């Protein structure tokens, strides 16, 4: 582990004009390293480098298959270095080492998928009669600014970086200040596969400083952001002043509707992954379970069993896949979650298990299950972003849908039932960009992901995401008789 990590701008490793920032290991509470902190001048230098490369045509003029091969090679580079990357990810973010390895593999998968898609972005001809030849073509926007969240710093960067490069854009990445270290491997990968200097720029900076400058920069052509609603609104407002398109993923308060005919034994695994993976710090986490009255008590008993079965501790002690959970990303995030639990209890909710920070060094919170939660409580409407599951009750299908759709968010939803008709009706009625039936997190890199309402707009993942990174040009040719 290096003591000091630099930013990567125009092919060089450089210090930051704003000094340095401490990176804390949430598994111990101790300082892990320092990272260079970018200022406005650093951001401008990175954007102008990316702009220069884009205008040169060195990426956009390549035959797409060649560009795609470079993107695929970046993914292979990550896999080849997984033994170095995963421990750093665990140390800076807090997740178990086996979860970190899954994240590295997931990041590599994006490069594989979008590298394969590079040569499939095709236009079409439009018949205008004998006197004309008309066709469309897709062109990259230019400089893609990508502002990355701290919960999946490697995978979220890969998701947008791979699609942007596959379509011929250049990129400026602002890493999360809490977890900036592992993004360095994207710079190493870019160099290893032969991308030109300035095609990929990676800098760490504070959101209200470097992030604000980047989102408002006049030479940024497209913005990708994952984070809070408040910050998303600020970024979209800055982008609008420059008439720049955005892709915004702004979190959720996702609900799983569990009917009386659901397989509750199987559902235990969905709870394990849905709310306790990455200590619940997942935008699409199963933060609410809406259970039918008739199976409520059994369901609560089962999910409490899942929570109690988890061994919680420092991520580097959790090497192998299993019933383990790591730290939250910081003491501040942990304390915010504890505060929301305390407020929920004051409103009438009951703690079935957990609910307290742990008496060990680091940002640890007990896996928590809350019962007697009602739709009007704050805990049922605001994102906790921690290992906290709220259980609500319903009597009728219509009531379940009403509760599920009762928040401003609409990222994902789920329904668990053996009745195909009921599942299909629920999938139509749930107001969310992605609906899971009988398996939370069903799907993959191939399936489009994004939100309704305050969960944002635009889509990541799948072929649909590619259209966020290109603009359509129509060419109409008048033929001579």
Key descriptive features of the protein:
481 residues; 7-stranded mixed β-sheet; 6-stranded mixed β-sheet; single chain; alpha/beta
Structure description:
By secondary structure, this protein is of the alpha/beta class. Helices cover 36% and strands 23% of the residues. The protein has 13 helices and 24 strands. The strands form seven sheets. Strands 16-17-18-13-12-20-21 form a seven-stranded mixed β-sheet, with helices on both faces. A six-stranded mixed β-sheet has the order 9-8-7-10-11-23, with helices on both faces. Helix 2 crosses helix 6 and helix 4 runs parallel beside helix 5. The longest helix is centred in the N-terminal third of the chain and has 21 residues. The chain is globular, with a radius of gyration of 23 Å.
Assembly type: single chain
Structural class: alpha/beta
Q: Which strand-content bin applies to the residues?
A: 15-25%
Give the overall pLDDT as a whole number: 97
Distance between the termini: 71 Å
Give a nutshell description of this structure.
The longest helix is centred in the N-terminal third of the chain and has 21 residues, at 97-117. The strands form seven sheets. Strands 16-17-18-13-12-20-21 form a seven-stranded mixed sheet, sandwiched between helices. It is an alpha/beta fold.
Secondary-structure map:
Blueprint: E1 4-5, E2 7-9, E3 12-14, E4 20-25, E5 30-36, H1 40-56, H2 64-80, H3 82-93, H4 97-117, E6 132-140, E7 143-147, H5 153-166, E8 170-175, H6 184-193, E9 200-204, H7 207-216, E10 222-226, H8 229-241, E11 246-249, E12 254-258, H9 264-276, E13 286-292, H10 296-309, E14 311-312, E15 324-325, H11 331-346, E16 350-353, E17 368-371, E18 388-394, H12 397-404, E19 409-410, E20 412-416, H13 420-429, E21 434-437, E22 452-453, E23 456-457, E24 470-478
């Amino acid at each position: 582990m290096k003591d000091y990590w630099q930013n990567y701008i125009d092919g060089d490793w450089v210090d930051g004009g704003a000094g340095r920032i401490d990176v804390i290991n949430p598994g111990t509470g101790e300082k892990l390293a320092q990272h260079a902190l970018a200022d406005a001048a650093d951001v401008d230098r990175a954007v102008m480098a990316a702009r220069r490369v884009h205008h040169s045509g060195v990426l956009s003029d390549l035959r797409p298959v060649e560009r795609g091969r470079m993107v695929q090679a970046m993914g292979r580079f990550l896999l080849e270095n997984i033994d170095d990357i995963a421990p750093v990810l665990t140390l800076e973010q807090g997740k178990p080492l086996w979860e970190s390895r899954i994240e590295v593999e997931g990041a590599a998968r994006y490069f594989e998928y979008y590298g394969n898609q590079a040569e499939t972005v095709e236009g079409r001809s439009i018949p205008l009669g004998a006197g004309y030849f008309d066709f469309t073509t897709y062109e990259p926007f230019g400089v893609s600014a990508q502002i990355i969240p701290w919960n999946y710093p490697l995978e979220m960067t890969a998701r947008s970086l791979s699609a942007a490069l596959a379509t011929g854009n250049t990129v400026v990445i602002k890493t999360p200040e809490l977890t900036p270290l592992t993004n360095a491997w994207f710079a190493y990968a870019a160099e290893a596969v032969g991308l030109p200097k300035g095609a990929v720029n990676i800098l760490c900076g504070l959101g209200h400083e470097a992030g604000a400058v980047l989102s408002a920069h006049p030479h940024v052509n497209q913005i990708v952001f994952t984070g809070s609603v408040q910050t998303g609104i600020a970024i979209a407002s800055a982008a609008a002043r420059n008439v720049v398109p955005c892709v915004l993923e702004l979190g959720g308060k996702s609900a799983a509707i569990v009917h009386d005919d659901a397989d509750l034994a199987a559902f235990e695994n969905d709870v394990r992954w849905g709310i306790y993976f990455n200590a619940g710090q997942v935008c699409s986490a199963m933060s609410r379970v809406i259970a039918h009255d008739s199976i409520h008590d059994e369901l609560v008993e089962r999910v409490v069993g899942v929570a109690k079965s988890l061994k919680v501790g420092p991520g580097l002690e959790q090497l192998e896949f299993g019933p383990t959970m790591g730290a939250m990303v910081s003491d501040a995030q942990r304390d915010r979650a504890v505060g929301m639990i305390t407020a929920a209890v004051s409103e009438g909710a009951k703690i079935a298990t957990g609910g307290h920070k742990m008496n060990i060094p680091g940002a640890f919170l007990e896996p928590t299950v809350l019962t007697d939660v009602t739709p009007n409580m704050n805990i049922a409407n605001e994102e906790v972003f921690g290992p906290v599951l709220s259980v609500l009750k319903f009597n009728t299908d219509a009531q379940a849908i009403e509760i599920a759709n009762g928040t401003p968010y609409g990222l994902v939803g789920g329904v668990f039932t053996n009745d195909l008709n009921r599942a299909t009706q629920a999938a139509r009625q749930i107001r969310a960009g992605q609906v899971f039936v009988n398996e939370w997190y069903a799907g993959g890199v191939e399936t489009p992901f994004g939100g309704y309402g305050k969960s944002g707009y635009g889509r990541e993942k799948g072929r649909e995401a590619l259209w966020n990174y290109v603009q359509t040009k129509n060419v109409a040719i008048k033929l001579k008789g």
